[in-house]
Specification:
By secondary structure, the chain is mainly alpha-helical. It is built from 3 helices and no strands. The two termini are 35 Å apart.
Length: 77
């Protein structure tokens, strides 16, 4: 039991030292929920309107993701 507790504390210490950039998420990739929302938001639209809506949504998601990562990185110092 002591070895387990000691190992656990060492693991926690190692994970606490890893820089926040190691936890960074790729903001350019869409997940399943994003794709479903895009599909739902473009149902019944013309192709030109659909392209504008998709570009706008992707840009807004990317900006929000990068802003969130910047805030997390600024808070870790």
């Amino acid at each position: 039991m002591r070895k387990f507790v000691a190992s656990f504390f060492i693991l926690v210490l190692i994970l606490a030292v890893i820089p926040p950039t190691a936890y960074a998420v790729d903001c350019s990739k869409d997940n399943l929920l994003d794709r479903f929302g895009d599909w739902f938001g473009t149902v019944g639209k013309t192709p030109s309107r659909k392209n504008r809506v998709l570009a706008s949504r992707k840009t807004n998601r990317r900006l929000a993701c990068e802003e969130n990562q910047a805030l997390k990185a600024a808070g870790s110092f």
